[in-house]
Amino acid sequence: xxxxxxxxxxxxxxxxxxxxxxxxxxxxxxxxxxxxxxxxxxxxxxxxxxxxxxxxxxxxxxxxxxxxxxxxxxxxxxxxxxxxxxxxxxxxxxxxxxxxxxxxxxxxxxxxxxxxxxxxxxxxxxxxxxxxxxxxxxxxxxxxxxxxxxxxxxxxxxxxxxxxxxxxxxxxxxxxxxxxxxxxxxxxxxxxxxxxxxxxxxxxxxxxxxxxxxxxxxxxxxxxxxxxxxxxxxxxxxxxxxxxxxxxxxxxxxxxxxxxxxxxxxxxxxx
Amino acid sequence: xxxxxxxxxxxxxxxxxxxxxxxxxxxxxxxxxxxxxxxxxxxxxxxxxxxxxxxxxxxxxxxxxxxxxxxxxxxxxxxxxxxxxxxxxxxxxxxxxxxxxxxxxxxxxxxxxxxxxxxxxxxxxxxxxxxxxxxxxxxxxxxxxxxxxxxxxxxxxxxxxxxxxxxxxxxxxxxxxxxxxxxxxxxxxxxxxxxxxxxxxxxxxxxxxxxxxxxxxxxxxxxxxxxxxxxxxxxxxxxxxxxxxxxxxxxxxxxxxxxxxxxxxxxxxxxxxxxxxxxxxxxxxxxxxxxxxxxxxxxxxxxxxxxxxxxxxxxxx
Lengths: 271, 317
What we know:
The complex is a heterodimer of chains A (271) and B (317). Chain A is mainly α.
């Protein structure tokens, strides 16, 4: 065995930083293409927030205001949060659950793919789709809802929501490690939809019953939506720092859970 | 490209016979099930080894241990003398595994492009497509491929990185005869280029057609190992059919009997040699009738070998 090791050590291969960057880029590119062509994903992730927005923000309440904020502007922040959450949860959890449960992840793990590239690709995908959803909401609001905001404010809203994709991507990874491939969409919806409602993404927070408002304080989408509303001058009274802190803590917890799942998989057989 | 190919071949010629993958006293359990029991097994550079056994014998487990996809409960799995999970070792191996679902919206060439990017010196795309017989299917989405074309795409992903060592887990399962033979040809071409191949199969014919060496695995144990000719010699035997009043249990006690089963009114006995069994049968049961002796087919004899082993194991449990 010692001679074998000697012969083989001559052939050690290192991947250059440039090569590593190429791998990450391709992984992300194909993750994006894969989902873009997946009608279930694009339809549910992009069209639902847009449909809700058109119905409740443009057709029904376009002339109303919530507090001092014009409804079409307000709802870009809340349906934007809703869209970001959907893009991130479905972008990570359902793909991961399917890849894990049906053997594809094993093929990738057996290859020299850097494991982190796989997760990074899913997070990048979630951020890209989040940006697409929020941008489309802005376009709709500006074109048909009389939404007017300075470019800097628009960039801030978009940036906040896209950054807000991270906690939900982390949550999606945690879910993806603990649900089966077939039950993943149902499990995601079971978390996604009630959480959205209780966080005031469908019915504005101030109109929610008191006990639901109390639940909302513990839910990450509430905090992201408040940050987004803050950028258009419609935030609640809490300080901005608290919202970021809650989201950060939530992200770390989810990553911790995902890590447990990741390590558990290393020693287990699937498929 | 030609230069690198030659370099690889020279390297392999120089190190021919070096152990490139091994299981050393490896045991692996899934909860109550003992998938592998203290298995010792080696693959040497430049050879094609077939791990032959029925479903559930532990073939896939052996491959997954060698790929570092799971850890043994005891013993060591080594690849290129080191840890199979080492990324540098993975850059020199390619794997074709049994997969339930592959992303269906990506095109064949896109899958290959991505997997090629993982490796330091991948084969050109056109060469990969040609080697896997996918020249006309590069633009096809995976979801639009037939079963055989899907297998060939998975094969393409295994070879695209131009690896020195290939693991092929049941590469031809679900393929029709023609597609199976085409894949055999492709595997043979890889071997001509100096690659080392470990393949698992439950077809003796496949192992015979491709392998330099066969290890027969059943119930988590390697029960026979040798060249295809040696294995065939071990597994060939006779089939004895007769109507007898002797019990199945007593038939198992006869010399050289590997299997015995009731088949309608008669019993069917598999044995390494017919004469000692027939002699004993006639002595013990004077009323025996309808005696027929035939040579067992290869597949059948192999089945008898593994089933016999399995029954003994389950009786011992």
